[in-house]
Specification:
This protein has no helices and 11 strands. With 111 residues, the chain is mainly β. The strands form 2 sheets. Strands 2, 4, 5, 6, 9, 10 and 11 form a 7-stranded mixed sheet that branches.
Length: 111
C-alpha cells in the first residue's frame, strides 16, 4: 500500500523559508513523477510543482524562482524548499504520486 506523509509545515513570517518533506512508502518515488499541490481556504487545489523520474522539475508561475523541489532517493523522500514566502502561499500542502495523496501539512505565512 502506498503511503505519503508530509511534514515540515508551520507558521512563518513573510519573506521566510520552510522546507516540506514527503516521505513515501510502498512505492519507489524516484521511479515516478512526484508533485506538490496546495489548497488555500475557499480555493481550488493547485499544483505547485513536480519532479519527474529523470529529475526534471516544473513549477507554477506563482512560485517559480522561490520554490525548489528535490529528492533523496536513499530516503525515498521528496522535498519542497520554499523561500521568500508570501501570505498568498498560505495553504495546505499535499504530496501526490499517481492517484495517491498525503494528508497534507499546513503552511501559514503571516506577520
Amino acid at each position: 500500500q502506498v503511503q505519503l506523509v508530509e511534514s515540515g509545515g508551520g507558521l512563518v513570517q513573510p519573506g521566510g523559508s520552510l522546507r516540506l518533506s514527503c516521505a513515501a512508502s510502498g512505492i519507489i518515488s524516484s521511479s515516478r513523477t512526484m508533485a506538490w499541490y496546495r489548497q488555500a481556504p475557499w480555493k481550488q487545489r493547485e499544483m505547485v510543482g513536480l519532479i519527474t523520474s529523470l529529475g526534471i522539475t516544473t513549477y507554477a508561475d506563482s512560485v517559480k524562482g522561490r520554490f525548489t523541489i528535490s529528492r533523496d532517493n536513499r530516503k525515498n523522500t521528496v522535498y519542497l524548499q520554499m523561500s521568500s514566502l508570501k501570505p498568498e502561499d498560505t495553504g495546505l500542502y499535499f504530496c501526490n504520486v499517481m492517484s495517491w495523496w498525503g494528508q497534507g501539512t499546513q503552511v501559514t505565512v503571516s506577520s
